[in-house]
Amino acid sequence: MHRDEVFTMIEIGQLCILNSDMVVEARKKIRWLSISLGFPEIHATRLETIFSEIGRFSCRNGNHLDVMIGIDLKDSPVLVMNFESRETLATVPGIAHFFDAIRVETLESGASLLSTRKNLPDINYRPSPQLIEEQREMLARQSRNELLEMLKGKNEELENRAIELNKISLAIIHSPVSVMITDRDGRIEYVNPKFTAMTGYHAEEILGQNPRFLKSGSHSEEFYRNLWTKILSGQQWYGELCNIRKDGSIFWESTSISPVQNAENEITHFVAVKEDITQRKQMQNSIDKERQTLRDMMDSSPVAIGISMGGKLRYANQTFLKILDIRMGDPIAQIYLNPEDRVPIIEKLQKEGIVSNYEVKMRGMEGRVIDIMLTFLPTTYDGEPAILGWLVDISTLKKMQEELGTKVEGLNKARKATLNIMEDLDVARKEADSAAQAKADFLANMSHEIRTPMNAIIGFSNLAMKTDMDRKQRDYISKIQQSGKHLLGIINDILDFSKIEAGKLSVEHTEFELEKVLENVSNLISEKTAAKGLELVFCVEKGTSSYLVGDPLRLGQILVNYSNNAVKFTEQGEIVVSVKVIEETADDCLIRFAVRDTGIGLTQEQIGKLFQSFQQADTSTSRKYGGTGLGLAISKKLANLMGGDVGVESEHGKGSTFWFTARLGKGAARAKTYLPNPDLRGNLILVVDDNEMSRMVLSEMLTGMTFAVKDVSSGKKALTEINAAAEKGEPYEVVLLDWQMPEMDGVATARAIRKLPVTPQPYMIMVTAYGREEVLKEAAEAGLEDVLIKPVSSSMMFDTLLQVLGGKHEEQRAGEQPATAGIENLAAIKGASILLVEDNEFNQQIACELLTEAGFKVDVAENGQKSLEMLDKHPYDIILMDMQMPVMDGVTATREIRKIESFKDLPVIAMTANVMEADIEKCRDAGMWDHVGKPIDPDELFGKLAKWVKPRGAADVRETVVTPLKETASKEARPPKADDLPEIPDLDTHLGLKRVMGKKDFYLTMLRKYIDNQSEAPAQIRQSLDTGDYETAERLAHTAKGVSGNIGATRLQELAAAVEKAIKDKECTEIIDGLLSPFADAHALLIKGLQEALPTAKSDGEPDATEAPVDREQGVAACKALAELLGNDDSEALDLLDLRSELLRGILGANEFRSIEKALKDYDFEKALILLRGQAEKMKIEL
């Protein structure tokens, strides 16, 4: 012990106090010493107390206390006590009052030394040195022994604690949960391995840091403040934390944080124990989602579902609350009609654990009594026992059961009748055999009936091919002949489908030319692809044998079926027919034929339904696109018979590829070689086409002919390439131009090439899928040498190139006609493009007929909104605009048109039955330039067109092909003859004929359409008025006024005009009714007269006696052909209906023909076929 002052004294002993437990023993020693020294009791007690306080104060923060005790005998006895500690001891209460002298100093070690002295005047004796020595030795011995004993005990205790601590340390190190220890300020002092594994951090990275680096941002600052508030108050915190690992991934942990306190209850550390619950949280989230899904399902279930707990409703879905008179929280017993009915249900549930299909009466909404079938199960809800119930309203079922009860007797009778029927089954089987034979006979007869007209078509085609025809006519007749042969071949198998069912269908093995098969396929579908603006490409792999042995008809049949389907389901893009050799031997080869389109594609589910009899991809497709699904099934059987297979590859929305394989023999004939004369080989040819596949096919074809080929994708690139080639001294000999290309089409490109300063100018050939007259004329005008119709065969390409390069040019192209003389005021505008905006089908037909006959191109928009859409897509020379239309009227549409800068100078003429000056002024204000009243006067209409349509150049007029105007002029010059038309009250047939330029057939069609479209006009007007829809009523009256005038019913026109005006002026109901009544009477009289006078009035389907007699054989043939097309969902049925309309109307009857025509134009082929078969059965026509 350190001392700065030496006293003349005897040292009695030293004490070392390590902790508060040792203070008690030291107090005893001090008391014994003070009594031994003769201290009074009060002094001994006070000294003991002061010593105890000094000891506790010194050891409060884990420090120890060293004490030296001695007696100074220099003058008078003095008790000397020196205390050495890390604590400042001078502040201990009572020291200054007890000791006579106090001195405090700080030692070099940093410890505090308190030196005290206590005089002993009251001691009656002076202790002898021997006594003091004995006391000192005894005190030392006791202190030493006790200290050794105490140290031994403490050592054992420390060893035990070390063992325990070692166990705890091992447990923490190997713990499955993470452990983190921080100091009071949150600085990390220890983490176990699980912590580092969970967070991804190494211990050395995080020791000394605050755990806030683990924050993921998922918890608010308030959350963390509450956490710290709780643990700093000495309480333990439990909760879940969302933290972030070192790699940035999020994890959840269940955490408990416990404060660690010392003996003075002061917090020194925090221990956090954490468990990774990320997977549990994910599972809980999944469970919560599933629970919510289940709850949503229960809420939307048509079955009433409820949960009761403690006799009260705790959960109910919407159906439960809808059918039963109860709300959440209400006693469940109140829904029972008789509350005592619930008792046996609960008893049964408690006894058996389930109540199933129990019937009971309950109270429904609005006081209704309903029959309920319930099922109860015990369950838990929010951790408490509950009852889950399903309740089904069987009131309707009970009522039906009661009704069915009355029919039991009838059912018994039916059972007896069934037994009688069973006895007749043997007879039915025999009849079925007879029916099968009848079916075979029917198929044979049908085959004969269809073959007869088909043979006529093929025969007359052969005769026509022997006559003098121009190139175009010969091409048309050739395609008719080929198509007829192909159709006849297919009909032979379709009508003999029983062969397929019986497994007797066979294929031929004959030598054929592959190119001819593909050419025939092209002839059959090229018009369809051209009509839809699709690119048709044939791609035959180089090296494929041209002459093969097999069944060309079956190959073509499958390809045509695939191709027709491709066209049907494709609105834009291309159809590619490809041929590729898969396997090849010396004698035969396996060839893969494929048809790829860019159509709507198929889902995997739809693909699974294909190639089965009468199966379509889905029902919606069947309704929209038609088809029986039989074609693919036949294709599969045919491919199998030819040693191959079928399949499809498709992606929904991106198109499909239908393929089949066939094993075909190699033909003996040598393949044709298309090689020009040596001086023409290597000539430069430029292919210009925006379709990549088409460019590739043409380039490969020309390269195989030894020409040097380059291809570009646009007209602009072609101009650049031609210039560049000319500058290099390697000019192109021939340029093949596609017609329809973006930015610059083939004709425009040809004109631009003619203007290039290159010498010599290349020969130009148009290659297009559109074989229409206008294409040929535009090509000739632009200076093109020839036109090839896609898809182009090798022979066609070779012959054309030899003809062009050999200098052979046609002086006069087929189809060109000299300028025709005619009505001078229309000659300059023939071929003008007109947009007719009219909602009434009747008026559409009249206007289209007049304008088309006069040589104009007409498009129809059924309302103003549609006209705006069509103007964005096509240029027009003039617009004929009706005023009153649904969706958007003509006045509004014209105002919208005039807002567009490019259409400000586009002529718009009002063509409407609104002829009042106010109406005409309204049209002018909207931006219309003129007015044509309805009913349409052809002379007035043509005069307006001649006035406003900008004349074209002389070349355009000369090369426009229209109906010869001499014929039109002659028709107009002669007054129409109406003597042979029936007389109908209030119908001026002379005026009506004049409206349609004297065309009797067209006029009769108009009258029939009037019956179809206007029979219910008065009733429709009345219905609109009754519902307050005055706008529709006015429009209906307006339409009635216009169409009545068109057919010459002038009186009805005036009555309809009066009704329209009254509705428009918002007259009172009495005035409108007073005008509508005579209109309805006159209208009924006219309709009756038309129905009696016209053949359309025949309801029995028989032809009118006044009509020309019909060739029954031809009529039956037409019916059969139409039925065949309808059965195949072939859109060519529409063409046949138009072509044979009079014949079919005569054989079937006008009313029935009209119904079939309507179904066909609605593309409801199934309904049309049903109607046709029904009428054919009545007429005793076998289809």
What is the strand tally?
Answer: 32
Shape: elongated
Strand content: 15-25%
| Helix-strand makeup class | alpha/beta
Can you count the helices?
A: 44
Whole-angstrom Rg: 54 Å
Separation of the first and last Cα atoms: 134 Å
Major sheet size, sense and barrel closure: 7 strands, mixed
Average pLDDT number: 79
- Percent helix range: 40-55%
The low-confidence parts are: 1-7, 619-623, 807-824, 953-977, 1096-1108
Q: Any key phrases for this structure?
A:
seven-stranded mixed sheet, 44 helices, 32 strands, 1183 residues, five-stranded antiparallel sheet, disordered N terminus, 49% helix
What topology emerges from the helices and strands here?
Blueprint: E1 9-17, H1 20-36, H2 41-58, E2 65-72, E3 78-85, H3 95-98, E4 101-106, E5 112-119, H4 129-173, E6 178-183, E7 188-191, H5 193-199, H6 203-206, H7 221-232, E8 237-244, E9 250-261, E10 267-276, H8 278-300, E11 304-309, E12 312-316, H9 318-323, H10 342-352, E13 355-363, E14 369-381, E15 384-393, H11 395-405, H12 408-423, H13 425-465, H14 471-494, H15 498-502, E16 510-513, H16 514-531, E17 535-540, E18 547-550, H17 552-568, E19 574-584, E20 588-597, H18 604-607, H19 619-625, H20 630-641, E21 646-651, E22 655-666, E23 684-688, H21 692-704, E24 708-712, H22 715-727, E25 734-738, H23 746-754, E26 763-768, H24 773-781, E27 786-789, H25 794-805, H26 824-827, E28 833-837, H27 841-853, E29 857-861, H28 864-871, E30 878-881, H29 890-898, E31 908-912, H30 917-926, E32 930-933, H31 938-948, H32 954-959, H33 965-973, H34 989-995, H35 1000-1014, H36 1017-1026, H37 1030-1047, H38 1050-1064, H39 1069-1093, H40 1112-1127, H41 1132-1139, H42 1141-1148, H43 1150-1161, H44 1165-1178
Parallel strand pairs: 17-19, 23-24, 23-25, 25-26, 26-27, 28-29, 28-30, 30-31, 31-32
Antiparallel strand pairs: 1-2, 2-3, 3-5, 4-5, 6-7, 6-10, 8-9, 9-10, 11-12, 11-15, 13-14, 14-15, 16-18, 18-22, 19-20, 20-22, 21-22
Helix pairs in contact: 1-2, 13-14, 13-40, 16-17, 17-20, 22-23, 27-35, 28-29, 35-37, 36-37, 36-39, 37-38, 38-39, 40-41, 40-42, 40-44, 42-43, 43-44
